[in-house]
Amino acid sequence: MYEISPSVRKGLLQLIFSGSFMKRWNDKLRPVELVEVDKQAHKMFVAYVLYLLNSRNLNEDERVALGEEVILGGIYEYLYRLVITDIKPPIFYRIRSNPEHYRQLTNWVLDQLQPRLQPLGNRFWEGLCAYLEDPKNDGLARRILEGAHIFASSWEFGLIKGMDPGDDELKAIEVNFDRLLKKHFDLKGMREIAAGSASGLGGLVDLCGRLRFQKRWSQTPRIPETSVLGHMFIVACYAYFFSLSVGACSKRRQNNFFAGLIHDLPELLTRDIISPVKQSVQRIKDLIREYEQRELEERVFVLLQDEEYLELTERLRYFLGTNGHSEFDNTIILNNRIQTIDQLHLHREYNQNRFDPKDGQLLKACDNLAAFIEAYTATRNGIINEQLQQAQWKIRNRYQHVSLLGSVHIGALLADFD
Length: 418
What we know:
Elements: H1 10-17, H2 36-53, H3 60-84, H4 89-97, H5 99-117, H6 122-132, H7 140-160, H8 169-183, H9 190-194, H10 200-209, H11 228-245, H12 250-262, H13 267-270, H14 275-278, H15 282-300, H16 310-320, E1 331-334, E2 337-340, H17 343-349, H18 360-380, H19 386-399, E3 403-404, E4 408-409, H20 410-415
Antiparallel strand pairs: 1-2, 3-4
Helix pairs in contact: 2-3, 2-7, 2-11, 3-5, 3-6, 3-7, 3-12, 5-6, 7-8, 11-12, 11-18, 18-19
């Protein structure tokens, strides 16, 4: 069990959000702006799929441990990437091949990260240090993350490779991606994912990647603009950190992360309908929900009809709330049935891996926090309009007196944003 931290602080939330500013392929002609947080979201969705497919032969304890490794490894790698920013991959790989140079760079990265990560406690910090100090570890979790990273980067490359035929680097990059992808074809599902829309699994991953084109707050100017895809990753990270803070069991932490990672997947089918429209009339809200459910069946789950993907379908349904509950309900699985439960009861009675718990209420708080930081950051960057100011006021007001299980006071956290 992780030690309980009294709070997650402003600096950590902003650090995770900062990937929304970080440009990718910045030296290439590209049809859309590509940013780090979107790539990380796509990578972790692929990693989740690979994790499910490649852990079936493990017992439940081993499987839970592997899931934790995948999530933590993904977060560690993202934090590292946020600091090294514009170092091009070929240069970074050369640095990593020299142990002394890599150690010096990593020590500097850790110095930059420590002030913001310290509130998460020694266990998280020591795990980060150990992970970064052992880059040549080739365990299953690392291979899953590496395969997912290569695929997500190559997917982005597919968007730009035909735009500038005069760029002599592009052919070499393409050959290298092809080589690295094939290196991971021993992972179950990797070959199908790499095949793209030619396979059902590849089609699902491709659909997920397209959420980077869908901008949030589409009628409100903001700096930076954020996509639905990147927003989901930010919510997933927040959900994991708050899960640590409230002392959630390992399966609950993982469920909260992965549920956050896909919670807006239906917006691929409906677009980002703003809350005032969704909540204006109950019947409209119900109609949107019905449409989302139907579209998920006809455009997403239809891609996963192969028996091999049955578990993936079931997990997506559980996280998205397609079995009569909402993605923001607190749920457990008891006697093979999904049950909705209040948060305090879940925490006191069902905070064990065997109950497969998920904190929908915590997830909703993280969703609102991410929206608050989007609006707050845009305002700090000089974009002043009624929609952004009203959104901040509503979220502050809603959570002014709200705490999560007495461990995380959302109102106090928001008060740090002056």
